[in-house]
Design goal:
508 residues; two-stranded antiparallel ribbon; 8 strands; mainly alpha; 6% strand; single chain
């Protein structure tokens, strides 16, 4: 018999309520009445979202910056509404106080709707409205759900729509998270720079297409890693001004319906003060409400940074491969046993983890691109998945950069003796002699060196092309690594030019 597949019923999580508490209250909306846990700060709209979207099992509170950003938006709206006289001062003060509590880290466990939801983020906005309203009611001595005293929509959501609060809060959350990522990238860059200084005198063989190339220093290699991180820091920084353009005051589609004409400039001013960000109101609120271009720009820039960091991790894994049969040029800190069957094996687990973060960010960029394209007419309904992908990408990249720095880069050591031996036996150093002895002669010497036990330096002297002193000068560490560059155009060497290198020209 074929086993029968049993469908699991869609269950509804009820977060924010003590385990074992069965007490409920009744709330009503346009669809009817529903029981809500008595001690929950959220209400019926949030309850419906919990029932409708048991998908991600990840509440919006997994992104604390997003919760704080919503509190900033609601706080700025309350202040602006009170200022222009469309909201009672006492109600505005209650909303303001609750938002301050959320900014201080309270009530985050009440932001329970899933990150993936229909409705363009309406459930998240309603969740915020209900939590703020019920906490305000509690502070003023009223029961949860007594919305005639402080209403989630008429008061907390005054002059607003999900269509302007959600993208505004998202841009603020991304800005705050991005600032943290930029700090971590700068710290990581500093660690690579410190290793560059530490390894400045360690000569090694460079590689192109995984084949031996010309020499360089290990310090130069790590300095390159530092430089590329600096470039990514600059590109990510350039997205911050783009995120500073908000559409708060646009309400439903950008016309500002239900909002006083003075509201948009007032709320933007208050939000600048609260967030500390240089926010500006978009010049075209219709366009700003429907366009997701800034999210694609940020996503693409995050992908660039992640992929470049992943390439660095690939290099670290190659350079540390071995320890006996691989490159074995550097040693990564041993973090854990690497095998359940091979005793003593240690794997490059930290770079591997960072690689996987980069893969996830690249995939998230595809999702953001598709979601941005799928917007229709005056609104993009798919901003929740854009929000989830971008916030996760920023957070994961920030955590990956910190993990890579603390658990890997700061503890790297060089196998200097192995590197020195590889340089001494390398045929790639003949490149430094080619301008003096000619490409054809250099090629022949390289072939001979590969099939014999002689080094390039020994063969040059044996063939009477240069004296030992001349060869050693041309193959010095500083010349090989470009630290002491030869910038003039060079012709194939003549006996007179050899004399200028020091030592007598050899006789043929």
């Amino acid at each position: 018999m074929t086993p029968q597949r049993r469908e699991r019923p869609l269950s509804v999580d009820v977060p924010g309520e003590p385990a074992g508490s069965g007490a409920t209250r009744i709330e009503t909306d346009s669809l009817g009445s529903m029981q809500v846990p008595a001690g929950a700060y959220w209400g019926i709209h949030t309850a419906r979202a919990l029932e409708n979207f048991p998908i991600s099992r990840r509440p919006v509170s997994v992104y604390p910056d997003f919760v704080r950003a919503f509190a900033m938006v609601k706080q700025a709206a309350a202040r602006a509404n009170a200022e222009i006289g469309v909201l009672d001062a006492a109600k505005a003060r209650l909303i303001d106080e609750v938002c301050s509590e959320i900014l201080d880290g309270h009530l985050h466990d009440q932001f329970v709707v899933g990150v993936i939801q229909g409705g363009a983020g309406t459930s998240t906005n309603l969740n915020a409205n209900e939590v703020i309203a019920n906490r305000g009611l509690e502070k003023s001595g009223h029961a949860f759900g007594a919305y005639s005293f402080l209403h989630p929509l008429d008061d907390v959501n005054r002059s607003q729509s999900t269509n302007d609060t959600y993208p505004t809060a998202l841009k603020i959350a991304l800005s705050l998270s991005l600032l943290g990522l930029l700090d971590e990238l700068e710290e990581l860059r500093g660690s690579f720079r410190a290793k560059a200084d530490e390894f400045a005198g360690v000569l090694k063989i460079g590689r192109t297409q995984l084949q031996d190339a010309v020499p360089m220093t290990l310090g130069q290699e790590f300095h390159g890693f530092s430089t590329t991180l600096g470039e990514d820091h600059a590109r990510l920084s350039e997205t911050l001004p783009l995120l500073a353009e908000i559409n708060l005051g646009a309400t439903a589609i950008g016309t500002g319906i239900t909002a006083d004409p003075h509201y948009a400039p007032a709320v933007c001013r208050h939000l600048r003060d609260i967030s500390g960000l240089p926010l500006v109101t978009a010049s075209d609120l219709i366009e700003a409400t429907s366009d997701a271009g800034v999210f694609m720009t940020l996503s693409g820039t995050l992908k660039r940074s992640a992929i470049k960091l992943s390439k660095i991790c690939n290099d670290l894994r190659l350079l540390s491969s071995g320890p006996q049969a691989g490159f074995g040029e550097i040693n990564l800190p041993a973090r854990q046993a690497g095998s359940s069957i091979m005793p003593g094996k240690v794997n490059p687990v930290i770079p591997e983890a960072v690689n996987q973060v980069a893969f996830a960010i690249a995939g998230a960029d595809v999702t953001v691109t598709m979601a941005a394209e799928a917007g229709q007419l005056q609104l993009n309904a798919f901003e929740p998945v854009i929000a989830h992908c971008l916030l996760q990408s920023v957070v994961w990249l920030r955590n990956a950069a910190r993990t890579l720095r603390v658990h890997c880069i700061d503890g790297i050591t060089a196998n200097s003796e192995r590197l020195s031996a590889q340089v001494d036996s390398s045929v790639g150093v003949v490149t430094a002699l080619a301008p003096y002895i000619g490409y054809a002669e250099a090629s022949q010497l390289a072939k001979t060196a590969l099939t014999s036990s002689s080094t390039i330096a020994e063969l040059v002297v044996q063939n009477g092309l240069m004296t030992r002193e001349q060869v050693l000068k041309l193959l010095s560490r500083d010349r090989l690594a470009g630290i002491e560059p030869v910038t003039a155009a060079l012709a194939v060497i003549t006996p007179d030019m050899l004399g200028d290198l020091g030592g007598d020209a050899p006789h043929s």
